[in-house]
Each structure stands twice: as C-alpha cells, then as structure tokens.
Design brief:
Helix content: 10-25%
CATH class: Alpha Beta
Radius of gyration: 16 Å
Shape: globular
Distance between the termini: 34 Å
Low-confidence stretches: none
CATH superfamily: Methylpurine-DNA glycosylase (MPG)
Number of domains: 1
Strand content: 25-35%
Structural class: alpha+beta
Largest sheet: 9 strands, antiparallel
Mean pLDDT: 93
Amino acid sequence: MSEVACRALPVLSRGFYDRPVQLVARELLGKWLFREWAPGVLLGGRIVEAEAYLAENDSANHAFRGRTRRNASMFGPPGHAYVYAIHTRYCLNVVTEAEGVPSAVLIRALEPLSGVETMQQLRGACPLRELARGPGKLCQALGIDRRLDGWDLTLGQTLWLADSADAISADRILVGPRIGVTSAKELPLRFFLANCPFVSGHRRGLPLSASPHSRP
C-alpha cells in the first residue's frame, strides 16, 4: 500500500480504546500500526497478535502492585502508548478503559506492509517473516522506544493506529494463554490470527467462540 493510501486510513479514536481491554485486544487484529520514521518514510503494517492485561486480578499486569514511575502511562487516558524496556528491547502497549484504570494491550506481532526496506535496516537485514514477529522485534523494526511512552495515539502523527477497510471475521481469530510471562500465564488473553506466519511463538489456540473467559 502506498504512503498516501496508508495516511488516508481513519485513525482510531479515543472511544475505540475506552472499552474493556479484552474487546480492544480482539478488535486490534487487522488494524494498522504506523510509525512516522522520517519525512516521507512511513513504517507499519497490520496487527496479527495482541495480548490483554487486566486491571484487576491479573498478577502479570505491571500495575498489579500499584502505580510507579515506570507504569504511570497505564493509569492515563485511553488511547495512549505504554512503552517499557525488557532487557535491551522495548515493548509497545496501548492503554485501554477509563483514566485511572490500568489496563493495556501488548502488541505482539505485525505483518510488515509499509516501509519494509527501512524496517529491515533497523532490524539488521532479517527475513520479512521475522521483521516484527514478537513485541521486541516489532519495536526495533518501527524505531519505538521509551521516548514514545505516554504518546497520544489518536493524534495521527509520529505513532498511531488506524482502521482497516478489511474486517477480520471472528472465525479467523484464535485465543490462548499469554506467552512470555511467568505469572497468570494460564489466562486466555492472547488473541491472534489463525494460519498467519507473522504470529510470534506457537500458533495453537481455541476459536473465539470456545473461550468465554476471554470476553469482557
């Protein structure tokens, strides 16, 4: 897709994020994530995998023990970015629900579709399938770091999410336990597209209709 066509996609509004985190996580699949890297250089693609982190009774949530300087963005208004560091890489989350409710969705994987050559330069010349297959790889490919923590994703500039003309049907979505966490990993809060090579980790899961606990 051309940069002009990408920029014409409607930016997701504040209202999209101001809903239960499980619902936002599911509906982020198929949406576009964009990063304006330089004038005329737009990086991004379609979201194919996301994990929900609940504001209550979720020990894997960074805000489980309360507010800190590190997780402060999670308590802010919906539609902002929460970026945190893990080892030498970063992870991008989108803040959901009302201000003061620390829930967020971790964007785990992306199908690269815009600015692929630049993304490969940022990632070190790796295969297309591996460019943004995992939250750390995704942030490296898009040049996302802690400087974007707290960024307003509804502005439609620098870093934002946009709607897609192609809706994702429920039968294409699978749900399973989160990966990469040591606590509350049994919760079925990882949503991903079936038979998608860009999904990180294993691709085993249940149909959305068979996992009622993943619903709000």
